[in-house]
Structures are given as C-alpha cells and as structure tokens.
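[Automated response] Your request has been received and processed.

Submitted sequence:
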Amino acid sequence: MAASAEIRSLRGARADVALEVPQAVWDEEETASPGVGVSTRVMLLTGGECRFTCSMCDLWKHTLPTPTPPGILPQQIRHGLAHPAPGAKPPRWIKLYNGSNFFDHRSVPREDLPEIASLVASFERVVVENHPRLCSEVVPAFRDQLSGQLEVAMGLETAHPEALAALNKQMTLDDMARACETLAAWGVDTRAFVLLGVPGIAPDEAVAWCLRSVAFARECGIRHVSIVPLRRGNGWVDRLLDDGPLRLPTAADLEAVADAALSEPSEVAAATATVVTIDLWDFPTLAGSCDVCRPVRQARLAAMNLTQRHISRPDLTCGCQA
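Generated structure:
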C-alpha cells in the first residue's frame, strides 16, 4: 500500500488555475433512465485539494494546496450559469464537480452553501461529489435548501478489498455501504465511479473485477454507476505502468465491460434499476482502435449508455477488434 507522502513525492506540477471562473463548463446528455436523456450542465470548479491522497487520482492538478477562499465557488457557478446552452434544450440537471469533496469545509466553505443552493435552485437534479466518510449532517441541511433532487457521487473504484486499500482512499467497502444507506435514509440519491484497470488487480482480471464492482454498487442501491478507465496523470500510477506490473485498459476491455454490464438485465439490475454508463471521455486515447473503427465503436457505446441495452458489435474491416 502506498503512503500519502510517497504518492505526493511522485507528483508533477500543478496546473495554473483561475479562481474567477470554472475550469470548464459544458452541456451533455445525461442518461436518466433507459432511452431517456436529460440535458445537463457540467461545471468543473476550482477549490481546495481533497484531504485524501488517492494513488490513482490526478484531479489534484487543478486544485489549490490551500483551503478554498469563501465566495470563490459561488462566483464560479454564476459564471458557469451564464454560459450559453449550445442547443435548443436548456439544461435541466447540473453537476458541480470540484475535484474534491463538496461537504468538506476545506474544499467548500460552509458559509457558501446557502448561496450555492440558491444559484442552482432551478435545476431538477443537483449532482455533487463527496467521499463516503464525509457524509455528515451537512448533507441533509444542503438538501433542504434545494428545490430539486440532490445526488452525491462517490468514488467506489473497486470491490476488491485489498486493491481498494492499496489505492489509499482511506475507506472500506463497509464505509461505502453505510454511506449509501445513510444517504438513502436522507432521501439523497447516489452515484458511484468504478475504475476499470485497478492497481493491484492483474490485467487479465480487470474486466471481471470491474463487473463485480458494478454488482456491489447495485447491491448498495446506487442510482447511477459510471465506469471510468484508468489513465495516466498521477506519478504513482505512471511508475507502475512504466515498471510493468500494470497496464492501461484497452478499447476492447471497455467494450467487454459494456457488453457484460448492459446485456439482458439480471434480476438484481431489474430490481435496482441502476443506470450503468461507460465514461467515454478518454476513449480516443485507448489502445486498440484506429481512425477507421474508433468513431463507430465509440458511437455504439454512447448508444448503449442511453438505451441501457446491449447493441451488437458492427462488422469492421480494420482488424482492431480481432
């Protein structure tokens, strides 16, 4: 297991950040239920770094080494709300992702929460990210200030207990299950990020463990599971990749996970109605695809994300899927 000090010692430089505006703002089609998409405003906010030092995370690059100054996040959100919608559909949901924990005073000052709630009051769903161990009474207090549904996104990463410990997330599977139970009792929906390609899991077992992790999330009653392929960017992961015991997932690995997770729904999936989507942000960078097949394969996965159904693979002549 890597210690926080070792992980930090292998990091590169932070990015230059501007506190007056969000890092990025865009609108995307979010899967609400099978076949139903909802226009969603996404804001990547800049504030204080997460108190946890996860070995696979590169989000610290766009955070501050100091606590978030009061008033900064509401200013960023106001700027992000003024961003024009690209199409005819105004966003109905909003994601406020700060690369840290929304309910940690170091990252989101308590005194800013009422103003933030007021700024996003018109949205039907507000999604924020948080660590399972930081689900305190601040959560229902913020929920009560919203007119829409609150959803808390948490990094599960993996259901493999030893690999989870090695990520230095400083949480257990029991912590995740308890957080889900508590949030459900508060009427707060949950979302989980599951990692494909976890340090400490053999590459040939990565797909199987990813699917076990999705199953665990369903058992916890999580509303939405987002499967994210491991990427470079944190020095500790980069060292493992360069030394050989770890490899990044390929396009075929991601397709295998999608094919299994979005095949005919199992009894568990049908009972929980969990939405499972594949994060396609880095798909163009994954090994095992070419300029000919990549857009076709990515479009298929995007369609599966929306329909929540398996779609047969297209016949390709490039040989990448062989």
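Summary generated for your ticket: Strands lie at 24-33, 36-44, 93-97, 125-129, 149-157, 189-196, 224-229, 275-278. The longest strand covers residues 24-33.
If you did not submit this request, please reply to this message.
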